[in-house]
């Protein structure tokens, strides 16, 4: 079983479709029930969905309680964007950005480690190339994504010797609803689609007996 | 005038004392009124104090409204610690950690940029060596500090050409109340004191006509 | 056509085998003629080999002059290791380490950019996880690998808008002849084999119309 | 006693002047005897000079053999620049760049660690902001400087528990002979002078009983 968060749109939805097509058992999650249903309805009946606000520890508990057995992978795609010069950003939107990206990643990873650290579970944390470099006009978004990277790198050290694996994914900008909802208007016609990114990510998530691809950056171009 | 946040203890209090001793006009801030007064009372009458919860944009506005003229420097020392294996950390304490370190740094820097970006104001953001490296047992603290570093590096790009300067400071662990309040018990007898760190930081904050020290790491040892 | 350097052993040899098995046209290179022949002899007759000392610009010119048409990919695996406490390292071995890793990567990438920067050529630069973090006992090796990373990241900026793509690969330690030849003796029984790493790398080197996997870390475990 | 390398011009010469003015005993080094003498002649008679090619281990031995007692600090300023699009760079100049920056730093630090690792010697390694970020048009220079940073960070780990301290310094571009000699022509009229950088660096090199400033970036502006 594979758990996918942020599955009601974008990369999460595209991954849900891809994995479902090859018959995987899935538990997909998002905040918006209707949009989540629009994603899950066309998929196979091995796909279960459950709404959750991942910034709340209780919602995450409830999400994992739904799993009848230990998931093989957890792919954390949830997140949101918010952009603009720092002085033009609104406090409420900044707080939402932090919740949607930082708090949710911490709470999700915390519960995953709590439950599964002694098992061979792969946790894939999807961030952004904004986690790897500073960018003008994206200061709080970079802050949020750098936070998640600091979290992932630190928890890797805590998991030394554990069979649980953390995989860090850094996609560049995709042509998804992410942009309109972030308040940033830009021409995304040359951007990769969520389907393209999902195809690449799924293929690059490869492991062998003694190793695995642990960090993946997906660039535009 | 110099504004110092997080001045009710630790490095912030030590810096307030040092700058006050050489006659500087100060505005110091902290969350706890009584502790802030214990710091400010023994200092010169050029030291003004004002409580503020820096995770609230309104408190920050009120703080800067107190300044009769543009501050020469803003030294942001506010922050708190919280440690332990990720799975043992409590949601409420994680939320407080994010507020005290991430939200407050964003809100403070946002207001400073908003007001003073066209002026020669130096904003010193005190983080921690945890902003520079991942650490087991400090995953959420590293997350919070990496966030602030991502913020600072991005806002630097936004300030290109502006007379405002951002200075990043990364102190190693000090022997302060920070540790007891973080829930981590460790022997800090060989750690530098807040006074030592303040002395070094004050001296290293040097600039000339065409340049300035922009990043300072202060190590133990 | 695919050009593979460092193909006389380790990851380079394993990649040559894999690509050859699926019928690719290859030009493989290494410093030692006999070992290179031992790799190429069992492979298909679409595999051409040519010795080259990649720290010499002329050898690299001669290598690419051998290509009858523009290669689709250049996979640079050449490199060597040298370890130990800094004060115990020998000047001659340090110089060889720098040549084999830094000079060769610069000279190879320089020639590739010179010839092919206006074409859709993918240059894969294989480094090491030592390019991503400092390590005690590996100071000069880290220096050499950090150099290559600095090179790759900078040349990426120079190639902005060019159809040429640079892909950075960071494998963890493999169970290959690399270790005996580095003077470091360690138990590599749990390490991934070069074949495992080659299988993962080949699969993760994926691209679509608007994007591609640009950075890949392959971890042990 | 303070040892300063790269003292025949730029930051090294400026530091020699500053430390000499306050009566410090110095051993200064450079490759060019005449230029080194032009620096040392006007200084106090507590300043000794010795030519050395720091990419040769023997020259470094001879340099330190000149020290009658253990130096308190070693300030390594030697280095050179070379710029331009990678494909336009010349192999010989690339080799010289590597020698002057990478090989010399390794050999110098190796000898310093060998002799003094059990003593309270401070080794200051002056790099460049090019060690901290990739830059178009500076690919090999960034490579060289990233190498030195990888070296310094790794040797720090090897020195854990040793009284020897490594201090990393990252100055931005200065208005010195560095630029004409690098083949890059640019307007440096707004750059800081070597004297300004030396003044800031000297002041920021501060330590107390339990701590010290370990990393200093000096920015233009």
Automatic annotation (TrEMBL), chains A, B, C, D:
InterPro entries with a match to the protein in the record: NAD(P)-bd_dom_sf, Sc_DH/Rdtase_CS, SDR_fam
One GO cellular component term noted in the UniProt record for this chain: membrane
UniProt entry tagged with the keyword Oxidoreductase: yes
Name of one Pfam family that matches: adh_short
UniProt GO MF annotations: oxidoreductase activity
Keyword set, alphabetical order: Oxidoreductase
UniProt record similarity statement: Belongs to the short-chain dehydrogenases/reductases (SDR) family.
Descriptive protein name: Putative short-chain dehydrogenase
Organism: Shewanella sediminis (strain HAW-EB3)
